[in-house]
Design goal:
The chain contains six helices and seven strands. A hairpin with a 5-residue loop joins strand 1 and strand 2. Helix 2 packs across helix 3.
């Protein structure tokens, strides 16, 4: 009986990609047939992740801090879908309309590419289990400046001119794009426009 009160939405993120005419008034249909404004569904989801992140941060430090929020979206999304996510982020309390720069909408392949460049990788590939454990530990560690300095020596080489393919297999889309390192310290250039679709 209690479950009747709840609404279950499956892979609702893809609705922002599949709809040609995207407005703030669109609704999503739950598994039980009930409907709810899509902006509410996205806002509630973002608010949940926001609260989880804040809880984790507060457990690490008592020092006041400001957060630069980053939301990643599929590379194949249109501009209207990205704007919809920004609107949902405002509803979720991540950012205010008076300080829009507090939120960055980043493409998922670009975020994955930057993360791989920062991730410490050993010569021998680790198992999936080891990788997952290392990822969880890295999120909980309070990194210091010396930690990052030591990490540089074991990080993979991403030299100027290096080109590579980013294959992003997500929960609803598969995106492929090709990047090139423009400078030694970080800038990336997209050689080919991202392509992909839902699956």
């Amino acid at each position: 009986v209690e479950s009747i009160k709840w609404m279950y939405f499956d892979k609702f993120k893809m609705e922002l990609h599949s709809r040609r005419c995207l407005t703030k008034e669109i609704e999503l249909e739950a598994a039980n047939g009930k409907r709810m404004p899509a902006s509410h569904v996205f806002a509630h989801s973002l608010e949940y992740f926001k609260n989880c992140a804040l809880k984790e941060l507060h457990s690490l430090t008592d020092t006041p801090f400001e957060i630069q929020w980053v939301i990643t979206v599929p590379a194949i999304w249109r501009h209207s879908a990205k704007q919809f996510m920004r609107h949902a982020a405002v509803q979720a309390g991540l950012v205010s309309t008076t300080n829009p720069k507090q939120l960055i909408i980043a493409l998922e392949p670009e975020a994955a590419s930057i993360y791989c460049r920062q991730l410490q990788i050993q010569q021998d590939p680790t198992s999936v289990t080891d990788f997952q454990k290392a990822s969880r530990r890295s999120l909980r560690m309070r990194r210091t400046r010396s930690d990052f300095q030591r990490q540089k020596h074991s990080a993979p080489e991403f030299n100027k001119g290096m080109r590579y393919v980013v294959v992003d297999c997500g929960g609803g889309t598969v995106d492929l794009t090709v990047h090139e390192v423009e400078a030694e310290k970080g800038r990336l250039r997209e050689l080919y426009k991202a392509t992909g679709g839902s699956w």
